Amino acid sequence: MTPQSQLSWVIGRRGLLGQSVESALALNSNLWHPLDPIRWLRRDGGASDLRDAVGQFLVAAGNDPWVIAWCAGAGTSSATPESLQLELVALRETLNSLDGATRPSGGLFFFASSAGGVYSGVDAPPYDERSPLLPLSHYGRAKLEAESLVTEWSQRNEASALIGRIANLYGPGQNISKPQGIISQICRSYLLGYPLSIYVSLDTLRDYIFAPDCAALVADALTRLRSESSKSGPLVVTKILASQHAITIGAVLGEMRRIFKSPPHIVIAASEASSTQARDLSLRSIVWPELDRRELTPFPVGVAITAADLRRKLQDASL
User: Fold this and answer.
1) What does the alpha-carbon distance between residue 313 and residue 304 come to, in Å, rounded to a whole number?
2) Span 60-80, pLDDT tens digits
3) Could you give the angle at the alpha carbon of 278 between the alpha carbons of 272 and 283, nearest 5°?
4) pLDDT for 104-143, tens place per residue?
5) What helix, strand, coil percent values describe the chain, rounded to 5?
6) What's residue 130's pLDDT?
7) What pLDDT is stored for residue 1 in this prediction?
8) Residue 29 carries which DSSP code?
9) φ/ψ of residue 10, rounded to 5
10) Do 120 and 135 meet the contact criterion of CB atoms below 8 Å apart?
11) In the chain, which ranges are E strands?
12) Total Cβ atoms within 10 A of residue 193
């Protein structure tokens, strides 16, 4: 395959992960965007818009190889079952619309799942791709159901798919109106000068990966998947995408104090949601480990970039 002969569509391209994945895929792909925006707030969760967009995309791809990267999702660990169900409906409609479309073009599908969501109830860290799955929240169960949808689609179409179980993602471009992304939320608390409530113990361990680093891993794993599939046939590969270095919430706050040169405005609070949060979500990947042998953005650098991006956005909003 020559550079730029692959057509790539990132569903959820405006999100934290999606914008980084699109930038990473643009290095070796032609990017495609739907003629009309996906109306996610429709009663069907955008499913009918996605069905139409799939048809347009396949016409544009013709017989060339293609990639669809599903990076969409308004769901968080506190999302309602109803909102999560709409996302599953949209994903199912997209996959059903792709039935029969992977040959002879060689289409690949990527689904962004959640490591924290699917491993949260196991209590046997560090977790790798062989670890048992036990989600505690509606969010985690929805991610696991979505993984099953992708696997079933791959099997019935003899198509290849990559499922990325992603660690705690952070970086520039996060939608801070959503109750997620503790790095961005703490930065926002500093910049706006209001306290932020934290509902877990400060010794809680999480793996944080900078969004552009994660996107580069996604792009390289898709390249590896295409190569392996061409030799051995269709594959469904599940890989953990993480820094593989967990740090405590307390350490995160310490780094924030160093960057902002003042103590954080934090309130330790109780919440029912804390029951769905594991204390230790350390992660290791044993699938294609050679892809993980790379320079990652150091955590202090990533946090500084995230804070600078958020400061610019807040300044622009005030103009």
Assistant:
1) 14
2) 999 899 999 999 986 666 678
3) 150
4) 558 999 999 999 999 999 999 999 999 999 999 999 999 9
5) 45, 20, 40
6) 97
7) 44
8) E
9) -100, 115
10) yes
11) 6-11, 29-31, 66-70, 107-114, 160-166, 168-170, 196-198, 205-210, 236-241, 246-248, 266-268
12) 7
Q: Identify the burial level of 135 via C-beta atoms within 10 angstroms of its C-beta, where 0-12 means exposed, 13-18 middle and 19 or more buried.
A: buried
**Cα angle value 201/204/209 (rounded, 5°):** 135
pLDDT, tens only, 190-219: 988 889 889 888 999 999 999 999 999 999
What is the tens place of the pLDDT at every residue in 241-280?
999 999 999 999 999 999 999 988 888 876 666 666 889 9
* Rounded to 5°, angle at Cα 26 from 160 and 36: 85
Residue pair 50/11 in contact (Cβ under 8 Å)? The answer is: yes
| Pairwise CA distance, residues 56 & 292, whole Å | 35
DSSP track, 209-233? EEHHHHHHHHHHHHHHHHHHHHHH-
Does the pLDDT value for residue 3 go beyond 70? no
Residue that is written with structure tokens 């791809």 in the block:
61
What tokens appear for 117 in the block?
A: 């969501």
Specify the pLDDT at position 239.
98
* Residues 120/205, Cβ–Cβ less than 8 Å: no
What pTM value is reported for the model?
Answer: 0.94
Is 38 within 8 Å of 53 (Cβ atoms)? Answer: yes
Q: In what order do the strands lie in the sheet with 107-114?
A: 29-31, 6-11, 66-70, 107-114, 160-166, 236-241
d(CA 91, CA 150): 9
Q: Which of 13, 69, 68 is nearest to 40 (CA)?
A: 13
DSSP-derived 3-state class of residue 110: strand
Q: What letter does residue 36 receive in the DSSP assignment?
A: S
* Residue ranges per structural domain of the chain: 6-247+273-318
Q: Which CATH number fits domain 6-247+273-318: 3.40.50.10490, 3.40.50.1000, 3.40.50.720, 3.90.470.20?
A: 3.40.50.720
